[in-house]
């Protein structure tokens, strides 16, 4: 019995620690209701996804047992996209710190991008950007949807 009480106490402490609040916005209440029953919000408020990305997270959660109506999922999708979309950045215009922050690159890599564009003129394509010495091409590929020229 004491063990059970300790477990419940431990679990509620864990839940409180994971109890990140969702930002205000249309669809917040529905998202809290549909997404909050199995885990806290800590595991996804740091994530940045496009509409496609969030829709596949939602599909994944439905496969794991999340329940809701079609219109409710549409509302959740709109909310997640409005609140947690990736920041777009123009690699021909932004300064190194803005590039590093938006794409979550190391400062040296963002600096290499700016140096390359200063030395060789602006980037015309994603492929050209991938050729900058020292950049993590796999990482850039995963952030591709955020990059403007
Ligand atoms: C039926 C239970 C359930 C519901 C409801 C639920 N999830 Fe999950 N979710 C899980 C499980 C199980 C995992 C995997 C274990 C973990 O990471 O906690 C998970 C993991 C996640 C992850 C981490 C996945 C990864 O690959 O890193 C994210 C992000 C997430 N959920 C977002 C959501 C969102 C957004 C909603 C609402 C649309 C939601 N969850 C609703 C059960 C659920």
Kindly describe this structure.
With 149 residues, the chain is an all-alpha fold. The protein has two domains: 2-83, no CATH class; 89-148, no CATH class. It is 59% helix and 3% strand. It contains nine helices and two strands. It has helices spanning 2-17, 28-35, 42-45, 51-63, 70-83, 96-103, 107-120, 126-130, 137-142; strands spanning 89-90, 147-148. Strands 1-2 form a two-stranded parallel sheet. α4 crosses α5 (70-83). The N and C termini lie far apart (63 Å). Mean pLDDT is 87; it is low at 4-18. Bound molecules: heme C. The site of heme C has 15 residues, from α2, α3 and α4.
Q: Round the Cα radius of gyration to an integer and report it.
A: 20 Å
Q: Work out the number of β strands.
A: 2
**pLDDT under 50 segments (min length 5)?**
4-18
Largest sheet: 2 strands, parallel
Please indicate the percent range of residues in DSSP E strands (runs of 2 or more): under 5%
**Whole-number mean pLDDT:** 87
How many helix segments?
A: 9
Helix content: 55-70%
Distance between the termini: 63 Å
Side-by-side strand order of the widest sheet: 1-2
By secondary-structure content and strand pairing, the structural class works out as mainly alpha
> Outline, from the CA principal axes?
elongated
Assembly type of the chains comes to single chain
Ligands bound here? Answer: heme C
- How many domains comprise the coordinates? 2
What series of H and E elements makes up the topology? HHHHHEHHHHE
């Amino acid at each position: 019995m004491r063990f059970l009480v300790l477990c419940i106490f431990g679990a509620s402490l864990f839940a409180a620690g994971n109890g990140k609040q969702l930002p205000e916005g249309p669809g917040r209440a529905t998202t809290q209701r549909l997404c909050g029953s199995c885990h806290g919000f800590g595991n996804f408020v740091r994530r940045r996804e496009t509409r496609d990305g969030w829709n596949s997270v939602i599909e994944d959660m439905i496969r794991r047992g999340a329940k809701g109506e079609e219109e409710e999922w549409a509302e959740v999708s709109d909310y997640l996209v409005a609140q947690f979309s990736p920041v777009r950045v123009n690699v021909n215009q932004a300064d190194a710190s803005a590039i590093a922050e938006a794409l979550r690159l190391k400062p040296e890599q963002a600096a290499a991008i700016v140096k390359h564009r200063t030395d060789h003129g602006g980037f015309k394509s994603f492929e050209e950007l991938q050729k900058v010495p020292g950049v993590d091409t796999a990482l850039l590929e995963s952030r591709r949807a955020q990059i403007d020229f």
